[in-house]
Design goal:
InterPro entries: SCO1/SenC, Thioredoxin-like_sf. The protein is of the alpha+beta class. The protein contains six helices and eleven strands. The protein has a single domain, classed as Glutaredoxin, CATH 3.40.30.10. The termini are far apart.
Length: 208
């Protein structure tokens, strides 16, 4: 039986919704942590974002946030069937990580799926390996993903009823996290790899 791919209108609608939802999220800032100079606009993260999770990595092993966020880490929530935002943002993380490596800054890159029904460890491995050899993909049960998304204040929702061809609406922030300091900064869809690299390098220098 033939199946039909999502229409252009559905893709455009879901993409527009994701953008609006991403803009709708907000972060509060205040002075005082000594890292303000590294952020766009200064200040420190005031919102309570980030927290513990247990997920399944792209090798099938169960991992915690302590094992994954073990150093400066660029973290993104998306899905492998995403037609636009996710591959672009994952590629941006990968390019930034390579730029940082050239400067002697070791940064982890992590891609957490919000579509565990389709994103098995094998599917994630194929996606992350294509982006960067060191990128980690994380999946889990619906409950696992929901808990991680709540901790990081990530919005996501399925768009469409087709069991095979559907999109996911979701927020599109890339987070910069540190194992001891927690969330350091965030980046928006459309920020260039150079922006991620420069600001991340600033944090790396400041935290030495």
């Amino acid at each position: 039986m033939a199946t039909t791919a999502p229409s252009a209108a559905l893709i455009a609608g879901a993409a527009a919704t994701s953008l609006l939802l991403g803009v709708g999220l907000w972060f509060s800032f205040a002075e005082g942590d000594g890292l303000a100079a590294c952020r766009d606009g200064g200040g420190v993260i005031g919102a309570d974002i980030g927290g513990p999770f247990t997920l399944t990595d792209d090798t099938g092993a169960r991992v915690t946030e302590e094992q994954v966020l073990d150093r400066l880490t660029l973290l993104y929530f998306g899905y492998t069937h995403c037609p636009d935002f996710c591959p672009t943002d994952a590629a941006t993380m990968a390019a930034a990580a390579d730029m940082l490596a050239e400067r002697g800054v070791d940064v982890n890159t992590v891609f957490v799926t919000i579509d565990p029904a389709r994103d098995t460890p094998e599917a994630l491995a194929a996606f992350t390996d294509a982006m960067h050899p060191d990128m980690i993909g994380l999946t889990g049960s619906e409950e696992d993903i929901a808990a991680a998304a709540r901790a990081w204040r990530v919005y996501y929702a399925r768009a469409g009823d087709d069991p095979d061809y559907y999109l996911m609406d979701h927020s599109t922030f890339t987070y910069l996290a540190h194992p001891e300091r927690g969330l350091l900064d965030f980046f928006r869809h459309g920020d260039a790899p150079e922006v991620l690299a420069e600001r991340t390098a600033c944090f790396a220098d400041a935290l030495r």
